[in-house]
Amino acid sequence: MAGKTVKKIVLEEHFSTPEMSKYATDVVKTIDDKFLDYVKPRLMDMNGVRLEEMDKYGIDMAVLSVTSPGVQLEPDAAAAVKSAKHINDYLAEEIAKHPTRFAGFAHLALQDGKAAADELERCVKQLGMKGALINGHTNGEYLDDQKFWPMWERAEELGVPVYLHPADSPTMPSNEAGYPEMAGPGWQWGSETAGHVLRMIYGGVFDRFPKTTVVLGHMGETLPFILWRLDSRYAMLKHTNPLKLKPSEYIKRNIMVTTAGSFSDAPLMCTMLALGADRIMFSIDYPYEETSQAVEFIDNAPLSDEDREKICYGNVTRLLKL
Predict the structure, then answer these.
(1) Are the CB atoms for 184 and 31 separated by under 8 Å?
(2) For residue 19, what are the CA distances in angstroms to 30, 107, 133?
(3) Structural domain boundaries of the chain?
(4) CA within 13 Å, CB half, 316
C-alpha cells in the first residue's frame, strides 16, 4: 500500500575523521569538487546536520561505519591495527551520546587476521557494536584467503554480520581505462564487490562458516539478478574446490542486501523475487545519497504493509539484535 510511513533503521551510513581521510586520496580524485564540498563536512559531522536530517525525514536509528577505504589501504599492519582500535573507540564515544539514535559497525584491520578477530570481539562485547563493515580488499587481498578465516570464525561465534562495502580495485581494469565515469561507484565498485563475494563462495567461506551473514549494499551489487546464470555456468565449468551447494543457494542463505544507493522500484521488485522480503533492509548511503530521496522511495514503493515494515526495520532489528 503506497504512502505507508513506518519506523526506519538504516545501516550503510558513513562517517570519517581527519585520521581516516588520509586513506581516501585516490578515491576523491574521481569525484566532482562540488560534490566533495557537500559530503566532506557531513562525513565529519556526527551530532549536527546528521541528526537534523534523521529527525526531518523520520530515520529512527542509523548504524554508522567508516567510509571507504579506511585502514584497508594501510601498508603497515601495526599502524592499521592501532588506527582501527582508535576509530572504534571514537565511534563508541559518539554512540554513547545518542544511544537510541546511533549504533555502529566495527572497523577492522585485516592486515592481521587474528588481531581483526580480537578487535571484532572487543567491539561487540565491550563497545556494543553490531558487527563489522569492511571496505573491500585489504591491500589487494580478498576475504576468501584463509588468513582471514579467524575473523569469519569469530563473526560466526559472535552471531554478528559483516557488511562488505565496495572499494577501488587494486588495479584499474583495462576496459575502464580512460573513462572516469566507470571508476569507483559509477561502475567499478559494483563489479569489484560482486566478484569479491563470488571469490568467497567459490573459496569455500560459506561452506566452512555456514552461519555467517554478509550484507551487501546497492541492492546486492547485481548478484540477485544473475542467480540462474551463476548456477548454469557453474555446472559447466571445472572446479578447483567443488561446493556443497549451488552458488545461488549461498546468496539466498548467507547474503542480505540493503537499498543503499538504489532507490528504484524495478531493482527492488527483482530483488524481492530473487531473495524474498526477509533478506532486504532499507538504507541510504549517507551522505553520498539524499535522505529525502531514500525515504520518498521506500514510503511509496509498491510494497505490502508487512513487507515495508520488514524492509524498513523488522529485518535489521532481527539481524543486529537491536
Answers:
(1) yes
(2) 21, 13, 18
(3) 9-320
(4) 29
For the four alpha carbons of 111, 113, 119 and 120, in that order, the dihedral sign comes to positive
In the 8-state DSSP scheme, what is residue 252? H
Residues near 68 by beta carbon (within 8 Å), at least 6 away in sequence: 14, 24, 27, 135, 136, 165, 166, 167
**Quick one: which of 284, 265, 268, 301 has its CA closest to 63?**
284
Contact 46, 14 (CB under 8 A): no
Q: Which CATH architecture has domain 9-320?
A: Alpha-Beta Barrel (3.20)
Please, what is the Cα angle at 203 between 135 and 271, to 5 degrees? Answer: 60
**Residue pair 10/62 in contact by the 8 Å Cβ criterion:** yes
Full DSSP string of 208-235:
HSTT--EEESGGGTTGGGGHHHHHHHHH
What are the residue numbers of the active site?
285
Q: Which secondary-structure segment (H or E) carries 43?
A: helix 33-44
Task: Report helix, strand or coil for 30.
Answer: coil
DSSP 148: G
The one-letter amino acid code at 128 reads G
CB-count burial class (<10 Å; 0-12, 13-18, 19+) for 225: middle
Q: What is the mean pLDDT of each run of 10 residues along the chain (322 residues)?
A: 73 94 75 86 95 97 96 95 97 98 98 97 98 96 96 98 94 88 88 97 98 98 97 92 96 98 97 98 97 98 97 98 94
